[in-house]
């Protein structure tokens, strides 16, 4: 049994075969998923999918790339949706310095607002980080994000920063890159971080794991991530799948079916 903690089944890439994609995931042992909505287009789709499928849950937040577009009304909308029984986290949120659509100061302001909202509604957060590790950690500390905790989504940083995040009540989630031959840091993290602090994800349709790299990613492939972690740790696939699923259920506050 697996829990893919970060999927974008609400993306256009799944418009034609959503049902089949979910069936393939179930056949691969993926029993639970969290579909992430991060703007005005993807949030309603995330909610729709979570409401339609029993073991699919939703996270709602605002992506840093589009921080410049977020209004007070959007923040209020996210707060209202946080009360929905199928919403289990606020996010994804964070900082993305790769793209230059939203200035860094605007990204930080929107990031801080969402952390404060999460603390208000007492929900964990999902962190998007691209080329902004130091600033992410600084904001999390300044805003006392440890109060609600969260997930370092598709973590790609060093072991030392992972441990800093764990100390702030965050889970470390590994995705497709841990299977890439040249991905040194995710492999080191998979080996070093105690399994009780790890989650698995696909971030589909992006970052498909080896040997599907370059193709559309989908939740069924999270099994390849779990298998790679098991190999790196020298433990069984069953232990990785069972423990990461248990971790996710506890983290999201979901009763096992």
TrEMBL record:
Q: Its domain of life? A: Bacteria
Under which name does UniProt file this protein? YchF/TatD family DNA exonuclease
What positions does the entry give for a divalent metal cation 2 binding? 128, 153
CDD domains per the record? Answer: TatD_DNAse
Q: Which GO terms describe its cellular component?
A: cytosol
Please give the organism.
Halobacillus litoralis
Has keyword Thylakoid?
Answer: no
Q: InterPro entries, from UniProt?
A: DNase_TatD-rel_CS, Metal_Hydrolase, TatD-like, TatD/YcfH-like
User: Mind listing the UniProt keywords for this protein, alphabetically?
Assistant: Exonuclease, Hydrolase, Metal-binding, Nuclease
Annotated a divalent metal cation 1 binding lies at 6, 8, 92, 203
User: Keyword Heme: yes or no?
Assistant: no
- GO molecular function terms listed in the Swiss-Prot or TrEMBL record: DNA nuclease activity; exonuclease activity; metal ion binding
